[in-house]
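To whoever is on call:

I kicked off a structure prediction for a single chain this morning and the downstream step that reads the tokens threw a length-mismatch warning. I double-checked the sequence; it's 104 residues and nothing unusual in it as far as I can see. Pasting both halves so you can look.
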Amino acid sequence: MTSFAQNMLEYLEKVANANLLVNGCIHILVIVAYVGMSFMKNQVIKSRIFHLTIFLLFASVTVQAALYGNPVHLATFALLAIVALIPLFKNTLIEPVQKVHKIG
């Protein structure tokens, strides 16, 4: 009898090994986005790159879940992908945390 953890590990291994091209592209996307954001000075562009990258990550998991018939991941990551798109359409920024200045 196999445990839940073993079943989950086998599933994740099957999904990861079945689409090496997709997994490689996702890793390249994240690296390019990170490098691009580190050189950007404009906060609006940084925010858009960040939210678009997060959306693409969630969308790729959603597609993988649909292909492999995992309805829980499909629903969860589809919802997360939609939530990641909201800031792009609302034209909001991630406000940087302001430093607390000591008074006195």
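Update from on-call: the warning came from a stale cache, not from the record. Cleared it. Sanity check on the structure: The CA atoms of residues 95 and 101 lie 17 Å apart.
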